[in-house]
Write a structure and sequence with these properties.
Layout: H1 2-35, H2 43-48, H3 52-77, H4 85-110, H5 116-138, H6 145-170, H7 175-201
Helix pairs in contact: 1-3, 3-4, 3-5, 4-5, 4-7, 5-6, 6-7
Length: 202
Amino acid sequence: YRRSQKVINDITKNNSILGWLDSLIQNSLVTLSLSFFNPGGGLLPAFSRLTSRQANQVGTTYGLFSAICFVCSYFMTGIPLELGVWQIFLIGMIPFASFVISGSLMRYLLHHRGHFSIDVFIAGTAIVPLAFTSILIGFISFTAFYLIIPLVLWGFSYTVLTLYTGYSQLLNITEAKSAIIVALMLVANSFVCFSLIPKFIT
């Protein structure tokens, strides 16, 4: 009986893990298809179909994905830095973590409503365009600035639009406040990234 019960518990546990992973992958892909290709009108439907826990998981998945993209881009470009993979991964997580922390602070100071899962979701969806941009840059030589600069501007613009849409639609913040929040976040995150990244390199 105990052996049979152990087998049943193991099967149930494995099925629950596989079911959770399948649900996470499906939610991440559906959210990506809705928000990435239509950030102005698809972000709210993508968020509305998720629970608070699922939104947190999807946002965190995007943050980890962005760090992995940064690691891949580092090895693709062949930048001559003696860094371990874990150091590069941590550097890649800095923008996502900075977006989450600054977004939470801005939401609390200017809005006083919402949940932490929304901050994680907005930060994750906003960082995805920059992740894709880093991968595309990995295929291009650094001498081709005429291609790199438009890609960087494209990713940055997509991130700004996603942040603005997230705060104006998901948190129902006025357009004026959303613009202020996004502007302050970009300034704060740029300062944090440029301050922390050299510490990992040296």
